[in-house]
């Protein structure tokens, strides 16, 4: 019997994006066995990212160590990330996770003055909420912007942000169901009260243009293993140029110094750039992979990716509604990442396993199963995956 994947590839494609879809699909060996629709969790390996990891392993094996080249590669990853968000490389710190990036940022804030309030949405990934909660012991007061019916209404920020607010912590995409926030509007509300805006963009970078200057964002973080085609182990923190020299993170280390190789144990000289948010020895192998993954996104272009993933999302939503599936959150693709969440009557992890058995990679999260296409997927794969999802969900009820 054909797997859904074989069936889907056997169907002639009716539509293609504005880039060489077949060329990019040839970069992804996993497509021979699966339809990967789990990009909100982990994007597939490409020949390019694998070659990057091997370049590091080869260098290590051949030369023993080559810190100059390795650090250059970390810098190139930083620069590739900066290019993606329209920042300068000097405004980007290299960290190891969004948790670490958020902790560094939080540790640079002062919760003893008038502005002790942190406003965070209930749509934040729990790790971000945990960091803010942990800073209550330093005087931070947390106020939550609610999630209602799977979305955060813009009006819900009103009255929560006030003149005692130091920072607003707003994710771009909600990990649970793909709801996407209007960052320009949130920035305006935040700055109207003299507060700063911190954005966790892990669920959107790689799927749409994000221009930190145009959106007027103060801080932004993301890892690379979702739509940025990378691996665990590395994340980036953008810090607006004008704020860098005002901030002194207590989560620090020798790579945050003006000259890490001065080895001055009693001197805390801060790097003049966002490097001051770097801490210890950087994640070199992850940086090799991150640069390669980011280069794919920059090469195709986030706007081209958005045009195609919007098309795939619309097909997913229309097809789901036609099959009577229940969607969590909004069905308006203008307000969505490529991730769509379906309510599971039973255990979502059983549904994930059932889909995997049938050649489809999806991602369970609490009560929902998420299908999250990316630039390399086809409309026919969406149709095939929906057929299987409807069958698996039916079996589970
Ligand atoms: C929006 C978002 N933020 C943060 C994380 C996790 O961050 P960390 O890099 O700390 O594991 C995830 C998912 O794993 C996420 O979806």
Describe this structure in words.
The chain is built from 13 helices and 13 strands. With 397 residues, the protein is α/β, with parallel strands linked by helices. Strands 2-8-7-6-5-3-4 form a 7-stranded mixed beta sheet, sandwiched between helices. Strands 9-10-13-12 form a 4-stranded antiparallel beta sheet, with helices on one face. A two-stranded parallel ribbon has the order 1-11. Helix 8 (212-215) links the parallel strand 6 and strand 7. Helix 12 (348-357) packs across helix 13 (379-396). The radius of gyration is 22 Å and the shape is globular. The structure holds pyridoxal-5'-phosphate (PLP). Residues 97-99, 125, 127, 171, 175, 200, 202-203, 223, 235 line the site of pyridoxal-5'-phosphate. Pyridoxal-5'-phosphate is lined by residues 97-99, 125, 127, 171, 175, 200, 202-203, 223, 235.
């Amino acid at each position: 019997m054909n797997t859904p994947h074989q069936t889907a590839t056997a169907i002639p494609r009716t539509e293609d994006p504005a880039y060489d879809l077949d060329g990019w699909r040839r970069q992804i060996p996993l497509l021979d066995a699966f339809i990967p629709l789990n990009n909100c969790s982990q994007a597939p390996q490409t020949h390019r990212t694998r070659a990057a990891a091997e370049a590091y392993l080869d260098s290590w094996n051949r030369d023993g160590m080559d810190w100059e080249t390795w650090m250059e590669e970390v810098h190139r990853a930083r620069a590739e990330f900066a290019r993606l968000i329209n920042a300068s490389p000097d405004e980007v710190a290299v960290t190891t996770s969004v948790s670490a990036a958020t902790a560094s940022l939080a540790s640079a804030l002062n919760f003893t003055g008038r502005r002790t309030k942190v406003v965070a949405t209930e749509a934040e990934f729990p790790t971000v909420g945990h960091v803010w909660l942990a800073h209550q012991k330093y005087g931070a007061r947390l106020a939550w912007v609610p999630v209602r019916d799977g979305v955060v209404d813009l009006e819900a920020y009103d009255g929560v942000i006030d003149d005692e607010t130091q920072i607003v912590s707003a994710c771009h995409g909600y990990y649970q169901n793909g709801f996407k926030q209007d960052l320009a509007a949130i920035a305006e509300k935040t700055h109207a009260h003299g507060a700063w805006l911190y954005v966790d963009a892990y669920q959107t970078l790689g799927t749409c243009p994000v221009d930190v200057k145009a959106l007027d964002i103060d801080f932004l973080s993301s890892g690379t293993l979702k739509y940025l085609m990378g691996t665990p182990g590395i994340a980036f923190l953008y810090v607006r140029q004008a704020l860098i020299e005002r901030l002194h993170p207590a989560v620090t280390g020798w790579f945050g110094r003006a000259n890490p190789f001065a080895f001055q144990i009693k001197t805390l000289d801060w790097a003049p750039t966002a490097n001051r948010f770097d801490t210890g020895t950087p994640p070199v192998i992850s940086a090799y992979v991150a640069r390669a993954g980011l280069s794919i996104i920059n090469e195709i272009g986030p706007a081209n990716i958005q045009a195609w993933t919007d098309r795939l999302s619309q097909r997913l939503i229309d097809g789901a509604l036609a099959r009577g599936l229940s969607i969590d959150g909004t069905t308006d693709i203008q307000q969505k990442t490529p991730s769509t969440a379906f309510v599971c009557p039973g255990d979502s992890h059983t549904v994930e396993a059932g889909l995997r058995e049938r050649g489809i990679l999806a991602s369970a999260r609490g009560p929902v199963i998420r299908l999250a296409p990316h630039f390399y997927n086809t409309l026919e794969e969406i149709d095939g995956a929906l057929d299987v999802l409807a069958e698996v969900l039916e079996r589970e009820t």
